């Protein structure tokens, strides 16, 4: 699953992204939008 998300995250970030970075949530531009929509990200983090 992280391999697929690494492709998505790479597209959003505009640079290569490692599978490890996705697994560690170090890169989350793609996933963050989903998490915000689902209410999984605390409000103080969303504002950043």
Supply database-style keywords.
mainly alpha, 48 residues, 62% helix
Number of strand segments = 0
Rough outline: elongated
Rg to the nearest angstrom? 11 Å
> What would the average pLDDT be, to the nearest integer?
87
Number of helices: 4
Structural category is mainly alpha
Number of domains: 1
Spell out the helices and strands N to C.
HHHH
Contiguous runs where pLDDT drops below 50 for at least 5 residues: none
Largest sheet: none
Written overview of the protein:
With 48 residues, the chain is mainly α. It has one domain. Helices cover 62% and strands 0% of the residues. The chain is elongated, with a radius of gyration of 11 Å. It starts with a helix and ends with a helix.
Concise structural overview:
The mean pLDDT is 87.
């Amino acid at each position: 699953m992280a391999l697929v998300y690494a492709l998505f995250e790479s597209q959003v970030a505009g640079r290569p992204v490692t599978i490890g970075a996705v697994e560690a949530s170090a890169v989350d531009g793609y996933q963050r939008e989903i998490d915000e929509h689902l209410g999984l990200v605390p409000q103080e983090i969303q504002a950043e």
